[in-house]
Design brief:
This protein is mainly alpha-helical. The chain is built from 23 helices and 8 strands. The protein folds into 2 domains: 419 residues, no CATH class; 72 residues, no CATH class.
């Protein structure tokens, strides 16, 4: 009986950890070292994911783009019914569901306006199933885009205080990992002979995407997000620095007794010159203070009294705690700048003209919408365009970049009939793209309303292939023509309407938020700009990239329905 009583007192979690440690020891002893380390790493990630769903989401975003790499290098991966990114996605979804049940949380996702354009697009393209040349491929494509809606809902459910930075960090980290792989490839770590560039000194980087163009697209998308976040965080750092500037103390009297001295921010100190006294009410003082600051103080503690909040927000620069927090802000800013640099290098070494053009659209959007005054944004856009044109015209830009960009534009507009063009190594990529555009138009002409079936390009392409281009690439090399060919006019209208709605909703978040949260919205707005421009030359919904886009949509969805206050998030309108 005593032994049984002692057994009951042993925590079950301790037994679980002991069992895991024993299994890990056996694995390391029996398996080869590399295999044992892989299994041990996976076990640790699984345990951490069960503890915190954010870890599962982080892992999913980082390993999602490894789909092509694992299928190429790991024979077992080719035998699996779904790729490693999809396995991670469904595992994350399962962990989310199990934790919601265990913690008795609401299972149905919170409604957000961001769901509406996704549902609209899914309904519009679903009509193509009626006329699909490959119904199973259409169903698979519908499921892939439905995953965007699911992961967006998952992210909305995770939008609690402190989680925004985690989710953004996961997105940026996934891009940095790919950029480092691409830089390694660029310097000769890996590459096919067809990817030689710059007089056969370097290779075009392709990351784990298998091809440079989608890799370049991923770099441009994540770089746009990272730049927006950097701008938002820099504004937080600047606000923190200003709040630490010491100002003359103000002694306020309430009820005939002296209150503690508080330090006023420079803007509030200027207002003191025109007012002899401040209102005695905390509520009135709070309203005045909120109008003088553009965003809540980074140092404000949730639930702290107003006097304490003001005192912390305007602590003198000699306070070591205040200095320490500003240093932590600056450290994060430096990490973001490092990520920006790595991602920019990754975009450059992809040598993808479509990605460069796409990111130019993102850059224009970032510059125009970063300042709250649109006139300043317009001036910045003009300066960027004028400066770029000046560098190209005067030869200040690197000759290799000028040649890469100019050859593409000349060849793209230089052919009226691709069927009679002479094929060479120099124009092969452009002619291949134009041949697929021609096939897409023919598909849409024969099936104008509901297309040949969403995702059924490969099944229908042999009937529309030009004589010199019998092999299809899986898409039209232009996502707008691709949607028109596969889903008809109904699907294209649904896609364009969804894009407009998403852009408007993102603009709403941009206008209502400030600081870092505004920077996140700005970066995602740049992502939509890159996606819209680059889609003219490629299909970017490949290699599990839709999961990353779904997370970004979830961020916008969460910021739409929650507003930030000093005591955390609350549902907007409450």
């Amino acid at each position: 009986m005593l032994a049984r009583a002692q057994l009951r007192t042993v925590p079950w979690r301790s037994l679980l950890w002991a069992a895991i440690a024993f299994a890990a020891g056996v694995a390391i002893y029996v398996m080869p070292l590399s295999t044992a380390l892989l299994v041990l790493t996976l076990a640790i990630l699984i345990v951490l994911s069960l503890i915190d769903t954010r870890i599962a989401l982080f892992v999913t975003l980082v390993i999602g783009p490894l789909k092509i790499l694992t299928e190429t290098e790991v024979p077992l991966a080719r035998e699996l019914p779904i790729d490693i990114g999809q396995i991670a996605f469904f595992a994350t979804l399962g962990i989310w569901v199990v934790r919601s049940i265990a913690m008795r949380q609401q299972m149905f996702p919170r409604w957000s306006p961001i769901y509406l354009p996704l549902i609209l697009f899914l309904v519009a393209v679903s009509f193509s199933l009626w006329n699909s040349a490959a119904p199973l491929s259409t169903i698979k494509e519908l499921v892939q885009f439905a995953e965007i809606l699911v992961i967006a809902a998952l992210v909305v459910s995770l939008m609690e205080p402190g989680n925004l930075g985690w989710i953004v960090a996961a997105l940026i980290a996934s891009g940095v990992v790919q950029a480092l792989i691409g830089i390694y490839e660029f310097r000769g770590g890996s590459g096919a002979p067809s990817l030689w560039i710059l007089d056969f000194h370097y290779f075009r980087a392709f990351g784990s995407f298998g091809q440079p163009n989608p890799f370049g697209a991923f770099m441009g998308l994540i770089l746009a997000l990272s730049l927006g976040c950097t701008f938002g965080w820099a504004s937080e750092v600047w606000a923190s620095y200003k709040n630490l500037t010491p100002c003359p103390p103000l002694r306020e009297r309430r009820g005939g007794t002296d209150n503690d001295e508080i330090y006023l921010s420079p803007s509030l100190h200027n207002q003191q010159k025109t007012k002899e006294r401040f209102p005695n009410s905390h509520a009135r003082l709070a309203r005045i203070f909120s109008t003088l600051t553009s965003s809540p103080s980074p140092f404000a503690e949730r639930g702290a009294p107003l006097g304490s909040m003001i005192d912390q927000a305007n602590r003198p620069s000699s306070d070591p705690k205040g200095r320490g927090e500003v240093l932590s802000y600056i450290t994060i800013l430096l990490l973001l700048l490092f990520a920006d640099a790595i991602l920019a290098i990754g975009l450059l070494v992809s040598w993808s003209r479509g990605a460069w053009i796409g990111f130019s659209g993102a850059a224009l959007i970032l510059l125009f919408f970063a300042p709250k005054r649109r006139l300043i944004g317009a001036i910045l856009v003009v300066l960027l365009i004028g400066g770029t044109a000046f560098m190209f015209a005067t030869g200040l830009a690197p000759a290799s970049l000028v040649a890469r960009a100019s050859d593409f534009t000349q060849e793209l507009v230089g052919y009226t009939d691709v069927r009679g063009a002479q094929i060479s190594d120099a124009n092969y990529a452009v002619l291949e793209r134009l041949a697929h555009w021609h096939a897409a138009i023919d598909m849409a002409t024969d099936n104008p309303w509901i297309g040949i079936g969403f995702g059924a390009w490969d099944a229908a392409y042999p009937r529309y292939a030009l004589m010199n281009w019998p092999t299809g690439l899986g898409h039209a090399h232009n996502f707008y023509l691709n949607v028109l060919a596969e889903t008809g006019v109904i699907g294209l209208i649904g896609y364009l309407a969804a894009c407009v709605m998403i852009f408007v909703l993102t603009m709403r978040v941009l206008n209502q938020e400030s600081g870092f949260r505004r920077g996140v919205a700005l970066g995602i707005l740049g992502v939509w700009g890159h996606l819209a421009v680059h889609s003219v030359f490629d299909k970017l919904f490949v290699n599990n990239l839709p999961l990353h886009l779904g997370v970004m949509l979830g961020l916008i969805g969460g910021l739409l329905i929650y507003r930030w206050h000093n005591d955390g998030y609350s549902r907007s309108g409450n």
